[in-house]
Amino acid sequence: MQGLIHEQIGRSQMKVASLFRLAENVKRIRLVAGSDVPLQPFRAGDFIEIHGVGERLGPRTALSLTGDPACFGTYEVIVRRSPGHPDGLASCLHERANRGTHVYASGPQRGLSLAHGAARHVFIAGGMGVTPFMSHLASLADRGEPYELHFVFRRFAEIQGICWLLERYRNGGSMNFYCTVAGERPNLSAILSGWVPGTHFYVSGPRTLFAAAAKTATTVGLPAAVIHGDRGVAAGQCGSEVRIPSSGEAASAPAAVTLNT
Fold this sequence. Notes:
By secondary structure, this protein is of the alpha/beta class. It folds into two domains: about 1-105, Elongation Factor Tu (Ef-tu), domain 3 (Beta Barrel); about 120-250, 3-Layer(aba) Sandwich (Rossmann fold), CATH 3.40.50. It has helices spanning about 1-10, 90-95, 130-145, 160-165, 190-195, 205-220, and strands spanning about 10-25, 25-35, 45-55, 55-65, 75-80, 100-105, 120-125, 145-155, 175-180, 200-205, 225-230, 240-245, 250. The strands form three sheets. It has a six-stranded antiparallel beta sheet.
């Protein structure tokens, strides 16, 4: 049956090497090659599309690769069980996958790229929107390059495992955490108005974060070319969608801001 599924979807065969619970509804899953064909190397910002878990097929689910691109032979993804999509492949991977479970997915696909030649990178993430940034943080930390992360979430208990993973990549970087139920929120005006030439900003998360960042960027007069959204849209495309590989959710990009890729 697994061979038939593999033939039907024509994608790489992988298998689960390990699972680690990060929170009640969040797991880190490591994937390795499920056949003699090795996994392709990936670049920071890449993602894969899951097509099947075990004998189950479903709508393609995009998941950011959250590990260090310098580590070959394994893919690391973080999946969240979504009550709103109990039949989705992400929930299936979270609830039903065990060590050795076969997973069928695309090879690495290009997601968010960092601005070439930038001297400093500032990341603003909300919830699971941090996952597209994690491989970038790993690469920047490996090179000892400066960066700044602003990570906002509702409850620490829901995200503490991800915060623990992020600590691996602190070398050279500054990390700031905000728990909204505790009344903590990033001061977007102060963050974005602190722009100096050579600094680029990247936003990933729920539509409310995109909207707030877009409005603030316009208010402080931030040059459009230096703010980027995960798989963002070009200037002037009113109502275009910003597709976030970490969750598969879509958010509307306000017309007043450019969310460049």
